[in-house]
Amino acid sequence: MKPGESLNGSSERILKIQYFIYFGVMGIFLPYFNLYCHHLGFTSFEIGSLSALRTAITIVFSIVWSIVADRYAWRKPIYVLFNFLSAAIWVFFLYINDFSGMVIVTIFHTIFFAPLIAFIEAFAMDELGGGGGDKNRYGRIRAWGSVSFILVVFSLGKVSDLFSINTIVPLILAGYTLQAIFSIPMPKAKAREEQFHAGVRELLNARTLTFLTCSFLMIFSHGTYYGFYSIYLEELGYGPFFIGSTWAVASIAEIVIMINSGRILKYITLENMIFFSCLAASARWYLLWRAVTVAEIMIAQLLHAFTYGTFHVASILYMDRLSTGETRTLGQAANNAVSYGLGMMAGFMLNGYLYETYGARLFLMSACVSLAAAVVFRFLGR
Question: Is domain 9-380 classified as CATH 1.20.1070.10?
Fold first, then answer.
């Protein structure tokens, strides 16, 4: 460790493990769970509705549980308990293949799974920032999640070619179980509960509202991609291995940018990083609207380095700047709820309703939305 970096070796390893497992599971879930539902015979609207339901619950319960965690300094106990509950509830997906049953289990699972990523981000900001540490190192630790994502996506694409898409459900269960086990040694929260109310008042300001609006629009623009990208490629005639490979290419680009994000932030402000990430997203969605060849698809996926990599790093650090230590979990949960919650829910719902009619043309709509996010942040955030 370099001088001034307070993150001890044990805490750093645990954070890397948590990111590695969490995003490894996402490497199964994001590319393949909607495809799994598609093979169960669900309609596009049902798939979009399930995704929207999941994110709607995330909006409410990530905020609720983060308030409890910060108000009473219970972040670690809640995090450990909810990891185990999430794993236990996921077992029911092994026995369900109808839409109504899927809805019920999704509700209960998401109630406890919703705040976990915000808690991990808050743990990371606590550990990186303690004792005058360098929070710009966040990207190097978070990159372990992206490494896991690419390994899982690439491997699972081949597995699903050889076996059945149904294998994703027990694999996700295995991942949740590992994450629960490794949640036990997570570091304790450092927030002081007696200053919580003052921290909330400080968090509620115009800059926060502008940033959250930008985040909402940016992730809303990802609705077509996360909801129907894999299905779209399958309709173009590509197989699971190629589909997984394109997700892997995106993650490689993301890893490279995250590892080097600390260096990049020496030359560019967080504000400019967010702005240019939104512009890159607009270019990416426009390209996917026109893309049919392997080269076009891969170029669009390389832009994931900016549409997710730099935007995510800058967003976590920017929200941490807007928050106090006493509202760190709440700040990250609010960012996650508004962007990956409300933004993703709206994106999934609209795309689920329109995809069968408009197909890839929805990527053009996404390009316009991400461009709007750039305009909002640049001109309203001053």
Answer: no
